[in-house]
Amino acid sequence: MKNKRYYKPNKKTRRRAYHRPFSLRAFLDKYVIISKPNYGFRREKTKFRVLGIVLSLILPIYVYLLTEYFHFKSMGRLFDCIGENGGAVAFSLIALYGLYAVLYLIFKRGFLAGSAFSIVCLSLGVANYYKLALRSENIYPWETFTQIGNLGALSDFVKVGFPLWYSLLIALGIGMLVILFISKTSLPIKAVPRFILAGVIALSMYVSVCNQGMIERTLEFYNMSVAQTANQDKNHSENGFVGGFLLNMLTMDMEAPEEYSKNSIEKIMDKYDGERGKNFSSPDVIVVLSESFWNPKLLPETTFSKNPIANFDEIASRENAISGYMYQTAFAGGTVRTEFEVITGLSCDEIPAGAVPWQYVDEEIPTYASAFKKLGYNTAFLHTYTSDFYLREDTYPLLGFNKAYFEDDLADIKEVSRKYSGFYISDDSFAEYVKYTLNENPNKPNFIFGITMENHQPYTNKYSSFEVGVKNPKISEGTIEEI
User: Could you tell me which residue, 466 or 198, shows the higher pLDDT?
Assistant: First the structure.
């Protein structure tokens, strides 16, 4: 033992001992690949494991086809669209795979990423199915959350069932997710590299459409065009639901016209006399938009057994009544655009087709309500339906109204005995709410802007005591029944 020598390295030797040459395998093991037995892609490659990997790769294609099938309601029309508009299909799939990849990198597990991806896409597809049945219109991007949240209300508007075949196809998709869950399919990459890669993918997608020029170049590459949004029927028939939805997302923003500024508007307004007339007596002003009201007598070659709007005609013929027709920008849907034009005096002509004007209002704007408010009026808005439709709950406080009453708010007014006509508060009850609002402020003039819902579909068993015979030799029996 006395002859045994012990080696004690000095500081310099220690530094040499801990220095290792760069190794790609060591770098990957330390920073990227998770080297754990039976985990991620390192698990033994059983047939079930391989099946999970394959399903995780084809899931976006299945979800895309299923969503488009809900839209076209026909495999023939779906495959015609795919065959004739390959650019739009490629654009849609690349966008969906980009979203799926970002979710996969964030959640790491195939089951979690696939579930989040499928829920978003299929919920939009189902909501679009009901909206098409209700209004023959596709869902617009601003409705992504509002319409999905109101699927129950959408299904109430029309008596249309969800086909069993569609439910079975959704069940098949759920089965794919179950396999992903059992197989524990996941990415064998550590958190930091995953998040960096997710950010790179998201940034690349954003850069490709970050301004108008890039949007036009990207769309041109896929044989698509911003001009397609001018006709939403054509947009969705040529590009499918996903392609049309994405195209609308890229065109929602509105650019200010040239020379548009506060000073420009003030110069225009300077030539108008904004002073109140000497004989202005501060009368109460009540404006009512009656949902879906129109004059069916205007239908060519149509005859009725009795006047279908006799009450309106009687009121319009009174001595001091002024009656006529108005132009509007909505027909069979999108009535919120008429609502916007009436209360603001602004046109919807430059707003993208399918968009809702309230989505562009995020600060106080001049309206007839704010003008009357400056004259000392009490201003109130009454709507006999829910507040979350068309973003009204967020917007109306910005329009100059002292109060905004929606269906739930009106329920708190115990002084009015509320009655329903079908699904909606009756016009009789609406009139009583208007009277209540007038009496609530007897010492001030009132400006009341109201929207009724009784005339809205569905009409089944709604007016049982009112029967009008309709005849038109050029209209089918089904359409006659609707009239």
Answer: 198
Express each pLDDT in 154-192 by its tens digit.
Answer: 555 555 667 888 889 899 999 999 988 888 888 888 889
136-141 contacts at long range (C-beta below 8 A, 24 or more positions apart): 136/332, 136/333, 137/232, 137/333, 137/334, 137/354, 138/71, 138/232, 138/236, 138/241, 138/244, 138/245, 138/354, 139/245, 140/248, 140/354, 140/355, 140/356, 141/245, 141/248, 141/249, 141/252
Phi, psi of 303, rounded to the nearest 5 degrees:
-120, 150
- The strand pairing partners of 378, in sequence order, are 446
> Is residue 30 packed enough to be buried (19+ CB in 10 Å), middle (13-18) or exposed (0-12)?
exposed
* Cβ neighbours for 202, distance < 8 A, ≥ 6 positions apart: 98, 102
Measured distance CA(228)–CA(91) in Å, rounded? 15
Question: What residues are paired with 448 via a beta bridge?
Answer: 286, 380
What is the CB neighbour count within 10 angstroms for residue 470? Answer: 17
Residue pair 329/348 in contact (Cβ under 8 Å)? The answer is yes
Please state the pTM of the whole predicted model: 0.64
CA dist 333 and 144 (Å) reads 17
Positive or negative torsion for Cα 6, 12, 18, 20:
negative
CA-based nearest residue to 232, from 245, 219, 222, 220:
245
What is the rounded distance in angstroms from the CA atom of residue 85 to the CA atom of residue 67? Answer: 17
8 Å CB contact between 424 and 260: no
- Encode pLDDT of 217-232 as tens digits: 899 899 998 878 877 8
Nearest-angstrom CA–CA distance, 347 and 133:
28
42: Cα separation from own chain's centroid:
42
Other C-beta atoms lying within 10 Å of the C-beta of residue 96? 20
Name which of 376, 479, 382 is nearest 429 in CA terms. 382
Residue with tokens 């026909």: 74
Q: Are strands 420-421 and 424-425 parallel, antiparallel or unpaired?
A: antiparallel
Instruction: Report the percent of the chain where pLDDT is more than 90.
Output: 29
103 pLDDT tier (thresholds 50, 70, 90): very high
Tallying the residues shown for the chain, one arrives at 483
Among 341, 365, 390, smallest CA distance to 140 is for 390
* Distance separating the N- and C-terminal Cα atoms of the chain: 113
- For residue 191, give both structure tokens: 């958190």
C-alpha R_g of the chain: 31
Could you count the other beta carbons within 10 Å of the beta carbon of residue 227? Answer: 11
Q: d(Cα 37, Cα 32) in Å, to the nearest integer?
A: 15
